[in-house]
Structure formats: structure tokens, C-alpha cells
Amino acid sequence: VKQLVSEKKSERDQHIEIIKEKLEKWLSEGHVEAKIEGRAKHFYSIHKKLTEEEKDVKYINHLRAVRIIAD
User: Fold this and answer.
1) What is the pLDDT of residue 64?
2) Contacts by 57-61 with C-beta closer than 8 Å and gap 24+?
3) Using an 8 Å Cβ cutoff, are 20 and 66 in contact?
4) Residues 25, 1: Cα–Cα separation, whole Å
5) What is the DSSP string of the chain?
6) How many CA atoms lie within 13 A of 51 on its CB side?
7) 1-26 pLDDT tens trace
């Protein structure tokens, strides 16, 4: 799975931070108080999805996860 996922974990983490910053800005402009969490999916989770759903890695879009909890 590591070889199939082109992005390294550090690159996925960096992308998550960029997304979180953009979301924080957008939410603050709308005066929405929220907690934003994000993480890169682990290779085990990706492997599990590949085997359970019998899909090719090019069809797996869930390499990152972001959660927004609004007050």
C-alpha cells in the first residue's frame, strides 16, 4: 500500500494543515465558532478499504480526513 500511495504521510499532513487553515478562515469570516481536526489516514485503513471493497488504489479518495465541530 505504501508504494501505491504516491504521497508521503508528511505531505498528506501538510495538506491537512492547509485545508484546516482555509476552513478556519472561512468559518471565522462567517462568525462560526468551530473546532477543526484533521489527519492523514493510516496505511492499514487504506489497505482495509482496498481489500474489503475490492477496489484499485486509484479509486480510493479517502487518504485524508477532516472533522468540523461547530458550536
Assistant:
1) 81
2) 57/1, 57/4, 57/5
3) yes
4) 34
5) -TTT--S-HHHHHHHHHHHHHHHHHHHHHTT--EEEEEEEPPHHHHHHHHHHTT--GGG---SEEEEEEE-
6) 7
7) 555 566 677 788 888 999 999 999 99
> What's the chain's average pLDDT?
81
Q: How far apart are CA 13 and CA 50, in angstroms?
A: 21
Contacts of 58 (CB under 8 A, 6+ apart): none
Q: Which amino acid is at 39?
A: R
Q: To 5 degrees, how large is the angle CA 17–CA 58–CA 6?
A: 50
Checking if the pLDDT of 59 tops 90, the result is no
